[in-house]
Amino acid sequence: MSDRAGFPDLVQPFRIENANVRGRLVRLGPAYAEALDRHDYPETVGELLGETLAMSAALAASLKYDGIFTLQAQGNGPVGMIVADVTSEGHLRAYARISEDDGAYEAAADPAARGSVPRLIGSGHLAFTVDQGPDTDRYQGITPLEGATLTDCAHTYFRQSEQLDTAIMIGAHAGGNGGAPRASALMIQRLPGDRLPDLPDEEAEERWRRSVILMSSLTTDEMLNPSLHHRDLLFRLFHEDGVRVYETRPLELRCRCSREKVASVLARFRPDELGDMRAEDGRLVATCEFCRTDYFFDDEDLAELQSA
Length: 308
Prior knowledge:
By secondary structure, the chain is α+β, with helices and mostly antiparallel strands. It has helices spanning about 30-35, 45-60, 105-110, 115-120, 150-160, 200-215, 220-225, 230-240, 260-265, 270-275, 300-305; strands at about 10-15, 20-30, 70-75, 80-85, 90-100, 125-130, 140-145, 165-175, 180-190, 245, 250, 250-255, 285, 295. It folds into 2 domains: about 10-255, Hsp33 domain (3-Layer(bab) Sandwich), CATH 3.55.30; about 260-305, CBS domain Like.
């Protein structure tokens, strides 16, 4: 079995039986590799992208929604923005935008910046958005980027929000030294007490702390080990407290861009603005930042847009 084949794209839901705890284990192999193949990121940024993808998939899998879940980090560092979104069908995509300022690429590529939110993204904010369509209210939660890592920033959001007690671990390997790209996230949440009504509050708190401690014993290497089956990983961590696994949910890298969607955006610009976007051959080229697909529009196409 190949390295990549041993790490399928999936979400594994589970429950710790002797505690009010549910969880999601995310693994991304081929989807993460494909996302990297479409861009030319330095390894440090590629790993941050993998962490963002994995965390987005874990958070999305914990919600009931019909639409798009988006995680976006924006700051004043060399990586000015990184965004990932996940549809309710399990289709995901992501990209990172490296600043065009002098020295930004070199700063982002510095091995010393690996995993560091302050050094890569800088000061800014982390936003979580659920969009279920034009006829529904959009939910958004925003928190400052406070923490050394993306995991720390997520925990800051969980502490400040009114959501369930949540703990999360994320990791990514961008494929250096010949290995295949892999990303993973493990998230657990404390459920309301009425799931085990006879459990005293102190005991419920103790069982939650124990679950967090057991999860924290997991190493990044174990999370990203293609030889360790995802269910075996959960059994190793939580078997003493009883772990029940449910049906896995597949994930797939799939962009939602299209020529029609790009055209609808271009139609909002004035003719002089469109003229400034033209390439040397007179055509306008619009590139999707997620999948890097190019869409070309000539004079006839642009005239049709303006007359629509």
